[in-house]
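During the reporting period the student researcher (J.K.) took over the structure-prediction task from the postdoctoral fellow and processed the backlog of single-chain submissions. One of the processed entries is reproduced below for the supervisory committee.
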Amino acid sequence: MAAAHDCGGEATAPLSVEDALALLLDQARPVTALETVHLDDALGRVLAEPLASPIDQPAWDNSAMDGYAVRAADRAEGDELPVSQRIAAGSHAEPLAPRTAARIFTGAPIPAGADTVVVQEACEALPDGRVRLPAEIQAGRNIRYRGEQFRAGEQVLPAGVRLGPQHLAVAASVGAAVLPVRRKLKVAILASGDELVEPGQPLGPGQIYNSNRTLFRALLAGLGCEVLDLGIVADTLEATQSALAAGAAKADLVLASGGVSVGEEDHVRPAVQALGRLDLWSVAMRPGRPVAFGHIGDRPFIGSPGNPVSLFVTFCLFARPFIQRMQGLDPLPALRRIRAAAGFDWPKPDKRREYQRAKLVSRSDGTLRVEVFRSRSSADLTSLTWADGLVELRERLGFRAGEPVSFIPFSELIP
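J.K. obtained the following structure tokens:
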């Protein structure tokens, strides 16, 4: 892999998106500390150890339907059988007497001697306590057999999975009341800029509200991180170094917005270099070219541009998978891309990869079309509320409306 920069300060060509992501992920180290949490508190956590079932599932042969449990061979001797017992879920089944049927309900144990369940819709209950069976019966129908899902000792959940409702339900089904999970990742965030003011405060001349703090916190909350908020940092090298050092001392990862370019008021890059090392500070993409990655001591650092759309895009493409790797997610979920027709021309492609805010539209003929936001400005936050994804526009590749493009839904990028 080619190096993006000489950390002594001389820039070479920006890294491609793929190479930049590979560089980050190669240096992501999962947290090792574990916690044991109750099942009710495990949603969204990453399972630290495989979960094996202590029981067979199902634990016994049981009925998959409401109906009648019978011996299939008994049907050859007549179409009516006396009902000898009634078996509900949670009850005990007596062995099935020869030439009889058992009224049975979904989940109830199959009585010894029965080899099939005939659904109630195919039967006729007679007033004298007998049941009339259909003309054809096949042995083995409508029975869930012991251990057909899994046997005791088999793994039911792998380590490295983020626990969703379905995973918790599986854990509950085998009797697990607590689960071992990786501890929450602690992420320090800071915003650089004298022009920033927190919402609720009056704006002074040349000032803007700090939306990046809210965006960072919401994105990190969706990933299940514990956030250490370092607030707004003044545009000085000393203040930037102090804040970065404080974050690195308390958190597993430090994220910064703004101050990562090479202007006179951009102090993040030299501050990181003074405290550790900088491995990356430019990616061949738009928006978000000045993406910084390095270490403050032994703590990883990711710096995003100050424009909110650039922060959003770079967080989703780089910080999100880096955090997932640090959380122990294994394997990392691959981004799902939808191929659909472009609803726009792209005659002058950039030499950089572009990620434009886009919307997937269903047309009257059932086909899908990708539309892009009216502006390419990375300062326009409303574009993120208009869009429902990003369209990935490959470098140096132009096209006409109607040709296929790759659309990444926000559902793939925002947990």
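The committee noted the following: The longest helix spans residues 308-326.
J.K. will present the remaining backlog at the next meeting.
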